[in-house]
Amino acid sequence: MTERTGRCLCGAVSFELAAEPLATRVCWCRDCQHLAANGSVNLLVSADALTISGTLSEYTKTADSGNVVTRQFCPACGAHLFARSSARPQFRVVRAGNLDEPSSIHPDMNIWAESAPNWACLDPTLERVEQQPVPPKPSPASDQQT
């Protein structure tokens, strides 16, 4: 496992990931489209594997899934960095574009594909899930860290 690091646009918030992502997905829900003006590539990680330095601001709303989602961003530059869902507090979503080396990951599925605009370029080699996928099971290695 390679430790991954990242930061916001201005560098006021930084983070480290101490475990491999449980999933890497391109999300086409309407909220992610508003955040990214396109689909958003997200890492699903164990909350215990994420270390954050710096101050975050938050915005909370009910998502299309019905879950209460809290999105976290840098209050200085506005870069959206993380999210967490009331339904799965053991996980965190990390926006892949904020990684120092975003090419170190590769998406494995398109989610909320039914919400993608007709011009969206969905990689046909990735698994396609029309709405919210079933959450992944943590690996045995991540179970040992808790």
Strand content: 35-45%
Secondary-structure element order, N to C: EEEHEEEEEEEEH
Mean pLDDT: 87
Largest sheet: 8 strands, mixed
Overall radius of gyration = 15 Å
CATH top level label: Mainly Beta
User: Which spans of ≥5 residues are poorly predicted at pLDDT below 50?
Assistant: 141-146
CATH architecture: Beta Complex
Termini, distance in Å?
17 Å
| Shape by Cα distribution | globular
User: How would you write the strand order of the largest sheet?
Assistant: 6-7-8-9-4-3-10-11
Helix fraction bin: under 10%
GO molecular function: carbon-sulfur lyase activity; metal ion binding
Protein name: Glutathione-dependent formaldehyde-activating GFA
Region (Disordered): 127-146
Pfam families: GFA
Q: Would you mind describing this structure in some detail?
A:
Residues 4-120 form the CENP-V/GFA domain. Helix content is 9%, strand content 36%. With 146 residues, the chain is mainly beta. The chain has a single domain (4-145), classed as Metal Binding Protein, Guanine Nucleotide Exchange Factor, Chain A (Beta Complex), CATH 2.170.150. It has an eight-stranded mixed sheet with strand order 6-7-8-9-4-3-10-11. Strands 1-2-5 form a three-stranded antiparallel sheet, with no helix packed on it. A hairpin with a 5-residue loop joins strand 6 (57-62) and strand 7 (68-73).
